[in-house]
Amino acid sequence: MTTIAVINPNTTASMTATIAHAARLVAGADTEIVPITSSMGPASIEGYYDEAFAVPGLLYELTLAERDGAQAAIIACFDDTGLDAARAMLSIPVIGICEAAMVTAAFIAKRFTVVTTMERSRVPIEELAHRYGMAARARIRAADVPVLSLEDPNSDARQKLRAEIGRAIADDRAEAIVLGCAGMADLVKSFSAEFGLPVIDGVGAAVKHAEALVALGLRTSKQGPYAPPLAKRYDGALAQFAPA
After folding, report:
1. d(CA 122, CA 146)
2. Which of 71, 122, 150, 157 could covalently link to 145 via disulfide, CB atoms 3.0 to 4.6 Å apart?
3. At what angle do helices 13-26 and 202-216 cross, to 10 degrees?
4. With contact defined as beta carbons under 8 Å apart, do 36 and 58 qualify?
5. Among 13, 169, 197, which Cα is nearest to 105's?
6. Which residue, among 49, 43, 53, 42, has the nearest Cα to 12 in the 3D structure?
7. What are the tens digits of pLDDT across the range 7-31?
8. Contact by Cβ (8 Å): 158, 187
9. From CA 130, how far away is CA 182, in angstroms rounded?
10. Are 220 and 93 spatial neighbours (Cβ–Cβ below 8 Å)?
11. Can you say how many angstroms the Cα of residue 114 is from the centroid of all Cα atoms in its chain?
């Protein structure tokens, strides 16, 4: 049995349920998905400020998940929130859904477009595309959809996403679409059927990459920047996060 912790770094439990469902749909029969909702931080992550305050809760929950036997962890936020810190802190593989989605898209398309939520989230994802070596292949679009509106069936979020995907196909000549938010994970099949091209959800992609790493017996390298943090005192409200 492979145990994969899938953490939603925001505090909205209904979004965690959407993420967990998407993860379980693609997980192997011998994979246990353990969904986790952060216990502290923002209700949604939309921009650099929210991201910064999501990291302590994320790291706290991942520490508990590794202690409880998780063999890999997935950070289910398309900003890959706290990914480097988590890889330094844990010994098990930690996968961000943005990196997983872009790598997966690159397997099947020369050019792809990421359709994300708000304009303030577009630039951070562009920076991740550069970091992951995908800048020449990936276009990033924002559909002006607040993250929490994805949870509201009465919102126009899906219509806005459809319109932006249509523009990506027409203007970017996109060969595949990447959904740029974990809260979109339940839209893969319907959008793929509607638009007739591959649509990739980072949660599902991350699950398959995590299963592969566990099966191969690969763990995060502790040579270089992902070496364990040095023991030191942390003061104030962050004292509990001091490395031992």
Report:
1. 12
2. 157
3. 60
4. no
5. 197
6. 43
7. 999 999 999 999 999 999 999 999 9
8. yes
9. 20
10. yes
11. 13
Q: Report the pLDDT value the prediction gives residue 153, as an integer from 0 to 100.
A: 84
Q: What does the alpha-carbon distance between residue 23 and residue 19 come to, in Å, rounded to a whole number?
A: 6
Kindly report, residue by residue over 52-78, the tens digit of the pLDDT: 999 999 999 999 999 999 999 999 999
Average pLDDT, the chain: 96
8 Å CB contact between 75 and 86: yes
pTM > 0.90: yes or no: yes
- Rounded to 5 degrees, what angle do the CA atoms 33, 97, 138 make? 155
| Residues paired with residue 138 on neighbouring β-strands, in sequence order | 112
d(CA 68, CA 76): 19
